[in-house]
């Protein structure tokens, strides 16, 4: 089993990133046996599709590395690195540009969402973003890719590219990866609108819990979270048309590692006046140690850079045979 996943180092992590992605990475890392390995990386080459200053980029990579370690990624057990220090990602992405089809990329909903009405003005990088993502996965022969639901389509594209490459060049080079999408935490929704995903790009900070929010801020955001006047039902299925309530119950269940039904039955008949303080408590207890570790780690720049340097070295070694195989399949390095 080879697990791989990446995250763009763009700004602060929030509860959606933690429950939807990072906590699953940590769980997979904990479940590894001796002949399995995990690769986790900061997708800084992907983040060039977002405009940032040089200084911001440097800071973001370090901060995201600190956040991942604070959340439980152990750089001794998993290979933790940033993509830009492993040139094989960019090299394989270019080769795979020969395999990926325009029609496939035209169907990517993330490009449509991010480009919006300004399709003609969107960068080519944003359009071919999923090809680089395919290279990330295929380079390491990953078998399992833990991601949030929004990345499912990119993983399907990755499988299509791998299959076509293997067939076109009559090789058995790329492993076809499986996405791992935990159902319960696939989508954590905004605290202000239960139909919108919690996201760092939401202009309202009240819509999300950031991993850097202090205890009081968390409590206040939960107190002000949008709800409805109904009491909680006995079963979670009754929350179907109550998106805000369903989201809060879902967050509680995810944090407590319980089913939404068990949370509902505990609070059945009670209103949000009773439920919200309990939710705030469990959020605060879960996030406090992560935040404290993060604050400590992020100031130790030398150590972070050294950890990332060592991770990149391991990643380069692991990526080399697949990249060589790809060049060889095309007859580019005979
Ligand atoms: P954002 O939407 O805040 O820009 P990213 O797109 O950078 O977040 O996502 C980083 C990772 O976190 C991805 O694996 C994504 O699937 C996951 N993720 C982001 N938002 C959520 C959410 N609201 N619920 C669950 N997972 C999420
Ligand atoms: N595109 C992913 C996101 O926005 C990040 C990512 C880049 C990724 N490369 C990857 C995720 C490879 C999984 C595997 O969240």
Q: Enter the CATH topology name of the largest domain.
A: Rossmann fold
Number of domains in the coordinates? 2
Q: In the CATH hierarchy, what is the superfamily of the largest domain?
A: HUPs
Backbone structural class: mainly alpha
Given as residue ranges, the uncertain stretches (5+ residues, pLDDT < 50) are: none
**What fraction, in percent, of the residue positions are helical?**
40-55%
Query: Count of DSSP helices?
Result: 12
Main CATH class of the largest domain: Alpha Beta
User: How far apart are the first and last residues' alpha carbons, in Å?
Assistant: 31 Å
Shape: globular
Number of strands: 5
Relative strand content = 5-15%
Strand order of the largest sheet: 1-2-3
Mean pLDDT comes to 96
What's the alpha carbon Rg, rounded to whole Å? 21 Å
List the secondary-structure elements in sequence, H or E.
EHEHEHHHHEHEHHHHH
Task: Characterise the protein shown here.
It is a single chain. The chain is mainly α and 334 residues long. It folds into two domains: 2-186 and 301-330, HUPs (Rossmann fold, 3-Layer(aba) Sandwich); 205-296, Tyrosyl-Transfer RNA Synthetase. It is 53% helix and 7% strand. It is built from twelve helices and five strands. The strands form two sheets. Strands 1-2-3 form a three-stranded parallel sheet. Strands 4-5 form a two-stranded parallel ribbon. β2 (37-42), α2 (54-71) and β3 (79-82) form a beta-alpha-beta unit. α2 packs across α11 and α3 (88-97) packs parallel to α12 (301-330). It is globular. The relative contact order is 0.15. The model has no long low-confidence stretch (mean pLDDT 96). The structure holds adenosine-5'-diphosphate and tryptophan.
